[in-house]
Design goal:
- There is one protein chain.
- The chain is an alpha/beta fold.
- It has helices at about 1-35, 45-55, 85, 105-110, 135-145, 165-175, 200-225, 230-240, 245-250, 265-275, 290-300, 330-340, 345, 360-375, 395-405, 420, 440, 450-455, 480-485, 495-515, 525-530; strands spanning about 65-70, 75, 95, 100, 160, 190-195, 250-260, 280-285, 305, 320-325, 350-355, 380-385, 410, 435, 455-460, 475-480, 560-565, 570-575.
- The strands form 4 sheets. The protein has an 8-stranded mixed β-sheet with strand order 12-11-13-14-15-17-18-16. Strands 7-6-8-9-10 form a 5-stranded parallel β-sheet, with helices on both faces.
- Helix 14 links the parallel strand 11 (about 350-355) and strand 12 (about 380-385).
- The longest helix has about 35 residues, at about 1-35.
- Mean pLDDT is about 85; it is low at about 1-35, about 115-125 and about 465-495.
Length: about 575
């Protein structure tokens, strides 16, 4: 019996040993072949992950790329992304005297000989001449900063710790980057379109189209003249003088994409237009309402949209493909928030009140103030919304002010709100500051009664001295009775076409600069990269347009102004152009 028990125990041990051996064998086989068992990444997935590494500094694992600068200082790759210097197109940049060379495959895998033929050592320290990269030498350059031929990259270039698997994904993406000329471009022509909603007034539409059409006609007439025997000499002169020979002999075409019906149907119409006649970019464009449907179409189809005529742009910190003149009404609300924040003593912890007309203009002004005020660390203001047709009485505003004792009241509405301000003039609880919008009021800002000018502040997002009105030494604009009727002419409804024509002219000037600077690299992302490097511009409507990589709103400022007392209106600045 003892022998049998011993046999049974031995048998159980043997079986356990066999089972455990089989189990560990399975683990070994699983670990040995687990990598090959994983499905290979598709080309689409490689492009997605490679783009994320290039633009965001994140590995496929979701972890930041590890990098070193100046030899041994560790930094996260998210702080030193490839896109920040080499730009979205991968065609590089020039900043602070440092030339950042192209990182797209078409340039990387060719010798660096003539890529920078338009630059000279006199102005910029050029990258060293090198042979074409291979996958192995490119990986070495990214990791150690040593390029083929033995030269070392500038110390501003981080050294990235990327393993072989992730490096192959990044290199796959770089080979696809700016590899094909964008749609709408041929050897002889660049195609553009402008988007027009059918309910836009004919005079507004024509004000924009006349400028754009004239720009295209002049360019095409010039190219036509260059093709004649008589014009051949002029063509050669133009090719030698212009920054881009490729620009000199290309014609332009401009299609009209007319949107009909309600905005919810516009996307399908835009997709059909784009299917039938792909274009390189959208120029200008005009609607009476929200630009959002066109914005989203451009974003998802990667089509640049340059300076649409709209007071209601999409305000986004992340979107890329639409470049606006400004944030519109939103920007005025934003400026009011920044002005109050910069004057802490005027607020001193007291509440803020917004009275908002339930209109697109009022809602945009309110959104600009609310979001900026919140971002600056303040509590939300008390907001009173007025529906269509609803008025604000003198008694209501006075009682509201007496009860809340606010530091400031923001009246985001039209001239119908102004009479209520008179009740505050003699109120001991009135706020020290009341804000109104010059865009919303237009010419009615001159209707502000003298007794309320002391505490009424005006958001003013346009250039300060217009139409022959010169500032005095203290920054005051003095207007005669005759001048005041034309001072804000660009804001008046009856002269809206003049404003549209002025904006359209600014667009064509920036467009011409960008196309010449592209030097034949007609990639959509490069188009926006190049515009981001355009120097500040001064035009008639805005104080200045300033640009930078990834910046989507060119006019970034807004004055806060007041009307001074006296029978002859005097407008004075209470802030600088850009309010921080």
């Amino acid at each position: 019996m003892k022998n049998f028990s011993r046999y049974r125990r031995t048998n159980r041990l043997s079986m356990a040993l066999v089972c455990s051996t089989f189990f560990f064998l399975l683990l070994f086989v699983s670990s040995a072949f687990g990598e090959t068992a994983k499905p290979a990444l598709t080309d689409h997935e490689k492009l997605q992950w490679g783009e994320r590494m290039y633009r965001e500094g994140l590995l496929p694992s979701g972890e930041p790329v590890q990098a070193f600068v100046k030899g041994d200082l560790p930094v996260p790759g998210t702080s030193f992304t490839c896109v920040s210097c080499h730009l979205r197109s991968g065609l590089g940049s020039i900043e602070g005297g440092v030339v950042t060379p192209p990182t797209n495959g078409d340039n990387l895998f060719k010798p660096l000989l003539a890529t920078y033929k338009h630059l000279t050592q006199k102005f910029f320290p050029l990258p060293p001449i090198r042979p074409a990269y291979t996958d192995a030498t490119l990986a070495e350059a990214i990791r150690s900063g040593v390029v083929p031929g033995g030269h070392k990259l500038n110390d501003v270039m981080p050294r990235y710790l990327i393993d072989d698997a992730d490096m192959s994904i990044l290199e796959f993406y770089l080979k696809s980057l700016s590899a094909k000329v964008s749609p709408g471009v041929s050897d002889t022509n660049i195609s553009f379109a402008t988007v027009i909603a059918e309910d836009v007034r004919p005079e507004d539409r024509d004000a924009m189209l006349s400028v754009l059409d004239n720009f295209v006609a002049i360019k095409n007439t010039q190219v036509s003249a260059f093709k004649t025997q008589r014009g051949a000499r002029s063509r050669l002169m133009a090719e030698n003088m212009l920054a881009s020979r490729e620009f000199a002999m290309r014609t332009f075409s401009l299609s009209r994409w007319v949107l009909k019906g309600p905005p919810e149907t516009w996307r399908a119409q835009l997709e059909e237009y784009n299917r039938k006649e792909p274009v390189f970019a959208l120029l200008g464009g005009i609607t009476n309402g929200d630009w959002r449907p066109i914005h989203q179409f451009s974003e998802e189809n990667h089509i640049p949209s340059l300076f649409p005529i709209t007071d209601f742009p999409v305000v986004s910190a992340a979107d890329w493909y639409t470049l606006y003149f400004s944030k519109g009404y939103y920007q005025e609300g934003e400026a009011a928030a920044r002005y109050l924040n910069a004057n802490d003593g005027a607020v001193a912890g007291r509440p803020i009140i917004q009275v908002v007309r339930a209109s697109r203009e009022g809602q945009a002004l309110s959104a600009g103030f609310l979001e900026t005020w919140h971002d600056l660390g303040h509590q939300a203001p008390l907001t009173v919304t007025l529906k269509a047709g609803e008025t604000i009485s003198n008694d209501f505003l006075k009682k509201l002010s007496d009860r809340e004792k606010p530091a400031a009241i923001l009246l985001w509405g039209g001239s119908d709100m102004l009479p209520a301000l008179d009740a505050l003039a003699g109120d001991r609880h009135r706020p020290g500051i009341v804000f109104v919008s010059s865009s919303y009021l237009g010419m009615d800002i001159w209707a502000l009664h003298e007794q309320i000018r002391e505490f009424t502040y005006i958001t003013y997002p346009f250039t300060f001295a217009q139409n022959g009105a010169s500032p005095s030494t203290n920054g005051t604009i003095v207007q005669s009775d005759q001048q005041k009727t034309i001072y804000l002419k660009d804001l008046a409804v009856k002269t809206r076409p003049q404003k549209i024509a002025s904006l359209s002219l600014s667009l064509t000037q920036i467009l011409a600069m960008a196309l010449m600077e592209m030097r034949g690299n007609y990639y959509r992302d490069n188009f926006l990269d190049v515009i981001g490097m355009v120097p500040d511009q001064n035009f008639t409507l805005y104080e200045r347009l300033s640009f930078g990589p990834g910046q989507r709103y060119a006019s970034k400022g807004c004055y806060i102004v007041q009307l001074l007392p006296g029978p002859v209106p005097e407008l004075v600045k209470k802030s600088a152009w850009v309010i921080h």
